[in-house]
Specification:
By secondary structure, the protein is α/β, with parallel strands linked by helices. The protein folds into 2 domains: 33-242, 3-Layer(aba) Sandwich (Rossmann fold), CATH 3.40.50; 343-486, de novo design (two linked rop proteins) (Up-down Bundle). It has 19 helices and 8 strands. The protein has helices at 33-38, 43-49, 53-63, 75-79, 104-111, 113-127, 141-156, 187-194, 224-228, 230-236, 238-242, 276-281, 319-322, 343-357, 363-381, 386-399, 429-443, 445-451, 481-486; strands spanning 90-95, 131-136, 172-177, 219-223, 252-259, 265-270, 295-299, 333-338. Helix 7 links the parallel strand 2 (131-136) and strand 3 (172-177). The longest helix has 19 residues, at 363-381. The radius of gyration is 23 Å and the shape is globular. The chain starts with 32 loop residues before the first helix and ends with a helix. Iron/sulfur cluster binds next to helix 15 and helix 17. Flavin mononucleotide binds next to helix 4 and strand 4.
């Protein structure tokens, strides 16, 4: 059996572009204070403390640092939404990373926790946030340990706590471990969870966290990777940051790749210019398809994103280009499926996840996601009927009325339907349950029609050929999308 042991590739940027957030990943002691200080650590904070909070905020606004948690909202703009004169204000760090396929924040916390802590301190200084709550996903034991250890070191060395660096700037950082619910990654559910309540999203409006957040106070919620960019920006300046990438997507971003590629892993890519083809086939990145197979489809932005096919390979990591083509960049996860992939089964794996994670607060998601899973399961089992295919779309329309985004299908003359979609639910979990079903049925309808054909249930699946349904036929069936979806 061919060896297949690469848990994650190193962070990497081709063409000698700088590595912004993964520059210490190659050091075995990258997570220690000693290594951090030896490699420019806490210099960004020192630079910030030498300027006014307004100047630091202005620098981050000029950098157009887009949030890396999914929505891509500029951090500097979000920080400006705190109502003036309302105190105290809090920073909540979203380290709950659970989107299928996404595992970049975990690496940032495991391999460079001081960078995150420094980013938190810079954000607190710029916005006048008096306390920081760092929420880490429950299952991330190593990340929890590393961040806790780094925080102890930082407190002891005077980087966190009272009168930091001899100034009157003081901040406490509180660690909080999640209990393993995906929906708690949604910022208002995360705030509920921090307050000790059941993690369910709040209604927006009125609960936009910047205005009414943790304990009813103005609260900035930022993703781990977003904050990890701040030390570099303060050290090198917004101009150096915007010189990388494109004007609308400056800097770099981390992308976690999983599935049927030679080298799955987390890569730091240049924002806005690196294409999906570069990432999947480039020697500097994933090095092409696993076992020389053909690419069938890929999910460009985490499990919630509508799927792409080889026709979209030349799109760059640029929201303004990916959106009109029917998908989104989301949480920075690309899941690659080769020509052996059983498409209905891959969709079921993802839909099952979202149905399981539905918090139950709104009916279209609670009932709809469950129905999608049940109906899709019988289609996959070969016990469904042609009517079930309509039912899947009907249930989906009750969650997302109107046209749902999808990629172009040139061979069928299908134009792309741009992102975003309408939704009847409070948060995006409901639509996320429908996204894989809709993509799979729109891009590969023949695989569903074959499954509901008369006597399909008697067909145990061909033993050779691409549509076998259980993974590669010429090797261990170990790298199926089922695994891909749960390897997060
Ligand atoms: C269901 C759901 C799950 C989410 N999970 C995460 C997550 O794990 N990590 C994250 O940073 N943002 C997640 N988000 C987005 C957050 O609500 C929020 O937009 C983000 O943390 C803001 O940080 P940013 O502006 O720095 O990107 C999720 C959103 C939804 C709807
Ligand atoms: S969409 Fe689903 S997860 Fe989100 S609030 Fe409604 S029931 Fe809960």
């Amino acid at each position: 059996m061919a060896s297949y042991t690469i848990p994650h590739a190193p962070g990497f940027v081709a063409n000698d572009a700088p590595r912004i957030v993964t520059e210490r990943f190659d050091h075995p002691d990258s997570y220690t204070l000693e290594r951090y200080l030896a490699t420019g650590g806490y210099e960004g904070l020192r630079a910030a403390l030498g300027r006014t909070p307004e100047e630091v905020h202005g620098e981050v606004r000029s950098a157009t640092l887009l949030g890396r948690g999914g929505a891509g909202f500029p951090a500097g703009v979000k920080w400006g939404f705190c109502p003036p004169g309302v105190w105290p204000r809090y920073l909540v760090v979203n380290g709950d990373e659970s989107e299928p396929g996404t595992y970049k924040d975990r690496l940032l916390m495991e391999l460079d926790p001081h960078q995150l802590i420094e980013g938190c301190l810079i954000a607190c200084y710029a916005v006048g946030l008096s306390q920081c709550f760092l929420y880490i996903r429950g299952e991330m034991a190593v990340a929890q340990e590393r961040v806790a250890q780094a925080l102890n070191e930082a407190y002891e060395a005077g980087w966190v706590g009272r009168n930091i660096c001899g100034t009157d700037f003081s901040v406490d950082i509180v660690l909080h471990w999640g209990a393993g619910a995906y929906v708690v990654g949604e910022e208002t559910a995360l705030i509920e969870s921090l307050e000790g309540n059941r993690g369910m999203p709040r209604l927006k409006p009125p609960y936009f966290p910047a205005a009414i957040g943790l304990y009813g106070q103005p609260t900035i919620v930022n993703n781990v990777e977003t904050l990890a960019n701040l030390p570099w920006i303060l050290r090198h300046g917004a101009e150096a940051f915007t010189a990388i990438g494109t004007p609308t997507s400056p800097g770099t971003r981390m992308v976690a790749v999983s599935g049927h590629v030679q080298r799955p892993g987390v890569y730091e890519i240049t924002n806005g210019t690196t294409t999906f083809r570069d990432l999947i086939y480039g020697d500097d990145y994933c090095g092409g398809m696993h076992r020389g197979r053909e690419l069938k489809a890929f999910v460009p932005g985490g499990g919630s994103a509508p799927w792409f096919t080889p026709a979209q390979l030349d799109l760059p990591f640029e929201a303004s280009e990916v959106g009109p083509q029917g998908s989104m960049l989301g949480s920075g996860a690309v899941m690659v499926m080769d020509d052996t992939t059983d498409i209905p089964a891959a969709a079921l794996t993802l839909t099952k996840f979202y149905a399981h994670e539905s918090c139950g607060k709104c009916v279209p998601c609670r009932e709809g996601a469950t129905w999608l899973e049940r109906v899709l399961r019988r289609v996959c089992d070969g016990t469904g009927t042609p009517r079930d295919l309509d039912v899947l779309f009907e249930v989906g329309a009750s969650i997302c009325p109107g046209d749902f985004p999808h990629a172009a299908v040139p061979e069928r003359g299908l134009e792309p339907k741009p992102f975003p979609y309408q939704m009847t639910t409070i948060c995006f979990v409901g639509p996320s349950a429908f996204a894989p079903v809709h993509s799979a049925m729109t891009l590969f309808p023949e695989e569903f029609e074959a499954r509901v054909a008369p006597n399909a249930h008697l067909d145990t699946g061909p033993s050779d050929g691409p549509a076998s349904g259980t993974g590669p036929s010429d090797g261990p069936a170990s790298n199926s999308i089922s695994e891909v979806a749960i390897r997060v």
